[in-house]
UniProtKB/TrEMBL annotation:
Keyword Hydrolase: yes
Upper classification of the organism: Bacteria, Bacillati, Bacillota, Bacilli, Bacillales
Gene Ontology MF: a single term: hydrolase activity
Gene3D superfamilies: Nucleoside Triphosphate Pyrophosphohydrolase
Domain of life, per lineage: Bacteria
Start and end residues of each Nudix hydrolase domain: 40-176
Protein's name according to its UniProt entry: NUDIX hydrolase
CDD domains linked to this entry: NUDIX_ADPRase_Nudt5_UGPPase_Nudt14
Swiss-Prot/TrEMBL cofactor(s): Mg(2+)
UniProt keyword Hydrolase present: yes
Similarity comment text for this entry: Belongs to the Nudix hydrolase family.
Record key words, sorted: Hydrolase
Amino acid sequence: MNKFEEKTINTEVIYKGKIVQLQIDSVTLPDGQTSKRELIKHPGAVAVIALTDEGKIVFVEQYRKALEKSILEIPAGKLEEGEKPEITALRELEEETGYTTDQLKLITSFYTSPGFADELVHLYFTDRVKPLEKAVDMDEDEFVEVRELTLEEAEQLSVEQRIHDAKTAYALLYLKLREENR
């Protein structure tokens, strides 16, 4: 047993939606005391670092209601039940950007907010994108614009907080280290 483990006594589901479930867990702490934890359960997601033949990074700009602003992000999306992450990654790349690829490499997986959520994002890389012959329909409630930027342009937009999310920051760090190790 982990010395920091919290044993769940009871789980109360507060909300079960299309994307997340909110629950309150009553737990026993390592010192024997009890407490409550507000948790978000999420099916997981993927994100794709996609580079064009010119070495530009493919981004999508979209409005994020939780932030009340538009930001630039790498293509990403939620795992569907029973779907393998690499299938989701290819689907999201095609739907959001109009590009496809025959090569996706898993870079890593990471938790976005482990203090209250179990969302695990699988980060993929490809430098072999090509335009789709026929566009794929996006989700009906999704509105995005594709942008292609150099690493330097993306870094500047991060400073300006136009790129302002963890998965994209992680992607830029990966690309910066990749460039430095060439």
